[in-house]
Amino acid sequence: MEALLSKITHGYNYFMVESRDSRNSGLPLINSSWQVPAIVAIYLLTVLKIGPRFMENRKAYDLKNVIWSYNLFQILANGALFFAEFYLIGIRTDFNYVCQPVDFSPSKTGYEELYMTYAYFLIKIVELTDTLFFVLRKKQSHVTFLHVYHHSIMLTMSYLAVLFVPGGHIYLLGLWNTLVHVVLYQFYNLQLFQSPWAARFKSLLPKMQLAQFVHLAYHFGRPAILGIDCGFPMVWHWLGFSQAFFILIMSLNIYINSFMQKSKKQA
């Protein structure tokens, strides 16, 4: 038993102390090994069990104004982060799109990458509210496996990214994701008040999302499959590729089924 506890302690120290980026040690939620897993667990329990049971004999809440304000916040937050990331890539003449290592140095650029990765992580926590709104509005059919999986995995991966790879090759994931979310939350607001522009955004979103997943699968898959080593951890290339490819396949399946259902209705 003592040997097992010793191995667990050694593994924890190696994972959470020795292997992590020491520059992030003072950031809230990052220094703890249990807070983020607890947030994910509470999220899953709330949207899958507690929330639906709470709403079972209640009317759907009218949250239009709250949701509009929340969507506006997401548009501004994601938009600000997108332009900050775009600017940083623009001024970096050494950014390598084939394989980019993380800048762990105490330089201005190194800390900018770290703080942008951390800001992205915080946005992923706030985005869990999306699902809570579905539950409170009694739209449980929107709480799909893909929706819940995506929110859970993105929060978990962004937390681990702040710990171990705050920047580098994952940078384009944040760039893509923040841009898509600006359009997504703008669509939500237009749809909320039945704007005629909502239809245009609705047709644009699937194309942007598919383009995002295809490009990210290539972006992470190329160095993973070809074994291109630039100092960026190979395991993260494989994680990025597998997640982008998995969500791409799941999204394609949804879009194809939706298209076939529309075709049947028109026939």
TrEMBL record:
Q: Which terms in the Gene Ontology molecular function aspect does this entry carry?
A: fatty acid elongase activity
**Similarity comment: family membership:** Belongs to the ELO family.
Q: Where are the transmembrane segments?
A: 34-51, 72-95, 115-136, 234-256
The Gene Ontology biological process terms listed for this entry are:
fatty acid elongation, monounsaturated fatty acid; fatty acid elongation, polyunsaturated fatty acid; fatty acid elongation, saturated fatty acid; sphingolipid biosynthetic process; very long-chain fatty acid biosynthetic process
Q: What is its EC number?
A: 2.3.1.199
Keyword Signal recorded: no
Q: What is this protein called?
A: Elongation of very long chain fatty acids protein
**Annotated organism of origin:** Culex quinquefasciatus
Q: Which reaction does it catalyse?
A: a very-long-chain acyl-CoA + malonyl-CoA + H(+) = a very-long-chain 3-oxoacyl-CoA + CO2 + CoA
Upper lineage is: Eukaryota, Metazoa, Ecdysozoa, Arthropoda, Hexapoda
Q: What is its main location?
A: membrane
Has keyword Lipid biosynthesis?
Answer: yes
